Each structure stands twice: as structure tokens, then as C-alpha cells.
Fold:
Amino acid sequence: MRKLIFIFSLLFAQASFAQISNIPLNGAPARLSGYDGVEGSPYLFDDWARADVSTTNGGLKENVAYKFNIYENEFEVINEAGNKIFLDKDYVEYMLLERPSIIIANSEGGLLTKLLFKKGFDEISGVEPDDFVNVIAEGDKYSMVRTFDTELVTPPKNSYAPTPGKMFVFEEKFYVLSSSNEPESVRGRTKSIIKALAEKDQSTAKKIVKENNLNLSREDHLVIFFQKLNEA
Structure:
């Protein structure tokens, strides 16, 4: 199982980074959008936001303008020359994405201000080795990740749409990973997450939830929960 690498905190919304360097961004020119006339969006967030890019050569590029195309599982960024490119996945170690502030402002609370995306979770069905998934918690005992998917579908004809067009359908899935079991698909709910744990750890998990008054439908509470569970 992966070593404990990142433990996020809503209070600090920070992580330990590689050495900061003035590295160039590598990738291919962004293609022209082929989504004209398609309802919905292929992007995780429609607005441009900022990200920190950690590279496989140990460098870090901060405050990069990005959009995450989850339909293509590609990061579209603006490079030093002001051009839009798709980042070379082989070049990226991880991405730390800043959530657009408007989303935080309009939420009911509990959202992390930054989201970590990493590769290497192809043990999950449907995830390729170079696909980026959202790592909520990662530890020696348990990890929790989330996948974002957008499927391009053609809805059936109806009286209101005699000539149906295409639309993006958004979906997110949560998975609990352990050192001994296959990835377990869960709902983002307290009971579902605890049930996915090994039976010997469920009583400890319930105690952590009760003592810390946690609601595991909240991202910030998930971070606290898995941190304490991995330390137990």
C-alpha cells in the first residue's frame, strides 16, 4: 500500500511540495473545442482557476491557470508564452487544483479549497494508469479517492426535442482502498464508508466519528476521519 504522502487539512489547505523551480510546462497545443451544440460541460469547473503542478523531475510550477477536461482526462493550462496546451501526463507527478472561489462561496460548507489529483490508481475499474483521480486521503491502512467522469450521450427524442442533441452527463464516485482488499465503491455517506472498512476497524471508525462529531458527506470531515483512522 502506498506510504502516507499527503494529509490535507481544511484549516491550512496546504501540502508539502517539491522544490520550487522555474520549469517550463510541457505538452501539446490544445485542440479546438469540438463541443459546439453540446449541452453541459466537459470541464470539472467551467471557470479558469489556479493550480500547482509537481513534475516528475522534482520541480514545482505554482499558480498555473488551468481547466480540467474530465471527459478527456486532460489538464488544459496556459504556458509561459500565453498559449493553451494539454499537459504531458508523463511529465506530471501530481496537480493541486484550487477550487474557484465562487463555488466555495455558494456552498453550504465542508468543501476543500484545494483538490489533489494523482495517477496510479488503475486497480479501480475503468481507471487507466495515466488517469488522474482526486485523492482525498492516502495512508498506510486506508486511502480514499474520488473519480470524476463525464459521458457524452444522446438523450431520447421527446415532444420537446424532436431533434435531440448531445449532452454531457456528470458523475462522481468514491472509493475506499486498503492494503488487503480490492477498491470498495462507496457512497459519500458515513454509514457506507464505515461499512467498507475491515470489520476489525469499524468500531474504531464509529468511535472517531462520534468523538469528533464528523459527517462523512463533508470533504473536510473525510480528511480528519482518515487521518485519525490511519493513526489508530
